[in-house]
């Protein structure tokens, strides 16, 4: 998606995620540039990556893990130059085989994507993972106890790369449409533009910025009052947080610079 953003200034990167607890299936589709045919043929190989060096993550092991850590992966790509949808089956069965009787799986062409939103975008990529067969951990998507889009949004932002850490200049951020189908077939949906790490202080009540506490203490000092006599709002807190910039660590006179060696 970064590559497409560079070509189209007004481009809005977006992800569509569907988690089906009933079918034990997870689908992710994006509206990036997709793959060339050569890239698509080689990206499942270990240590192959098409990310630029400055991008987060560049070891190229993720796709290989999905293909051979599970027993069903559907992959698809489309752009003006190339389009293909196919499935790789029994990858984990092949990895775990000690008898030499399971053939190495190959991608077979599919007629349509399991994630239907892929049909509605002009270009991008889609991945669908099914948790089926032996040796799969976790064996069920419901093991976390989450069954709604709101609950899964929090999990994805905390536990996966969806929860990126951004600086102010990194705009626009990724938009996301999340759909979750619970085990009884009830679907909940959620659209959000905050694909960033879910910091605890943003959801936990009674969390205070440390700088506010320091300012309150300075006011007390100026009045000659014990700094422990803070206002009631600073007591019985569930969390304290603070933001620091680079200057705090590397600039002479910064809050942490005197405690750090030149190295």
Key words describing this protein structure:
263 residues, alpha+beta, Heat Shock Protein 90, 2 domains, eight-stranded mixed sheet, 7 helices, 10 strands
CATH topology-level name of the largest domain = Heat Shock Protein 90
User: Could you give the count of β-strands?
Assistant: 10
Overall body shape: elongated
Question: Stretches where pLDDT falls below 50 for ≥5 residues?
Answer: 55-59
* Main sheet properties: 8 strands, mixed
CATH architecture of the largest domain: 2-Layer Sandwich
How many structural domains? 2
Count of DSSP H/I helices: 7
First-residue to last-residue Cα separation: 36 Å
The share of residues in extended strands comes to 15-25%
Q: How would you spell out the order of helices and strands?
A: HEEHHEEHEEHEEEHEH
What proportion of the residues is helical, as a percent range?
Answer: 10-25%
List the strand order in the largest sheet.
5-4-3-6-2-1-7-8
Radius of gyration: 24 Å
Overall structural class, as computed from helix and strand content, comes to alpha+beta
Average pLDDT, all residues: 87
CATH class of the largest domain: Alpha Beta
């Amino acid at each position: 998606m970064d590559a497409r953003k560079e070509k189209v200034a007004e481009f809005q990167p977006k992800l569509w995620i569907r988690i089906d607890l009933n079918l034990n299936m997870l689908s992710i589709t994006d509206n990036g540039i997709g793959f060339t045919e050569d890239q698509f043929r080689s990206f499942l190989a270990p240590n192959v990556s098409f990310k630029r060096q400055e991008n987060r993550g560049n070891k190229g092991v993720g796709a290989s893990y999905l293909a051979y850590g599970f027993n069903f992966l559907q992959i698809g790509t489309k752009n003006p130059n190339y389009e293909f949808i196919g499935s790789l089956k029994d990858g984990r069965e092949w990895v775990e085989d000690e008898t030499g009787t399971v053939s190495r799986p190959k991608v077979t062409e599919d007629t349509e994507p399991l994630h239907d939103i892929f049909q509605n975008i002009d270009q991008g990529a889609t991945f669908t993972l099914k948790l089926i067969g032996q040796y799969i951990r976790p064996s069920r998507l419901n093991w976390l106890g989450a069954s709604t889009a709101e609950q899964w949004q929090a999990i994805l932002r905390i536990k996966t790369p969806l929860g990126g850490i951004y600086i102010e200049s990194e705009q626009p951020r990724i938009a996301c449409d999340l759909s979750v189908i619970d085990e009884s077939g009830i679907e909940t949906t959620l659209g959000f533009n905050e694909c960033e790490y879910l910091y605890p202080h943003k959801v936990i009540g009674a969390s205070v910025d440390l700088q506010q506490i320091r300012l309150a203490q300075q006011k007390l000092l100026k009045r000659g009052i014990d700094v422990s006599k803070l206002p009631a709002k600073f007591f019985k807190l569930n969390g304290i947080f603070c933001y620091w910039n680079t200057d705090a660590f590397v600039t002479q006179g910064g809050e942490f610079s005197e405690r750090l060696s030149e190295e």
